[in-house]
Amino acid sequence: MRHGPLRTILLAEDSPVDAEMTMDALRDANLANPIVHVEDGVDCLDWLYARGDFANRPGDDPAVVLLDIKMPRMNGLEVLTQMRADDRFRRTPVVILSSSREESDLVHSWDLGVNAYVIKPVDVDQFFQAVRTLGQFWGVLNQPPETE
User: Fold this and answer.
1) DSSP assignment of 87-139, as one string?
2) C-alpha 136: how far from chain center
3) Which of 11, 112, 137, 145 has the fewest C-beta atoms lying within 10 Å of its C-beta?
């Protein structure tokens, strides 16, 4: 069993309202994991690789990446593609949290190796429950393999 510091939940979401609701829901789940919010795919990759504005970030690789699809500069599918092409991040859990109900986004996400695809519910209570459940599962219960 893995022990040590709690691993970060990385949220890549360009909508300030959706990001705040997601972070509130994660806090509401009483998770001790740190939560980091970035606003697009470029910043997400910069955080993962500890470069640019995040060059001196503390910590390990994230417990999970919660990823929106439609973001400026670099979308979530491009981030997922790069993560899955890199041995370091190919096993990192990635959950798409998107308002997109387009079948092509769903199929493409699964083809790229997403771990879950959650359509953002319009109902706030449903959204909170979905995010709390995701946070508890990926942040606490999921047991990843030890890295080499």
Assistant:
1) TTTTTS-EEEEES---HHHHHHHHHTT-SEEEEPPSSHHHHHHHHHHHHHIII
2) 13
3) 145
Tell me the C-alpha distance between 31 and 148, whole Å.
27
- The whole-angstrom distance between residue 7's C-alpha and the CA centroid of its chain comes to 12
65-96 pLDDT, tens digit per residue, is 999 999 999 999 999 999 999 999 999 999 99
DSSP character at residue 14: S
For residues 53 and 37, what is the distance between their CA atoms, to the nearest angstrom? 13
Burial environment of residue 82 by CB neighbours within 10 A (0 to 12, 13 to 18, 19 or more): middle
One-letter amino acid identity for 147?
T
Two structure tokens written together for 99: 């308002």
What does the pLDDT look like over 18-72, one tens digit per residue?
Answer: 999 899 888 888 888 899 999 999 999 999 999 999 999 988 899 999 999 999 9
Which residues lie closer than 8 Å to 124 by C-beta, 6 or more apart?
21
Pairing of strands 64-67, 9-12: parallel
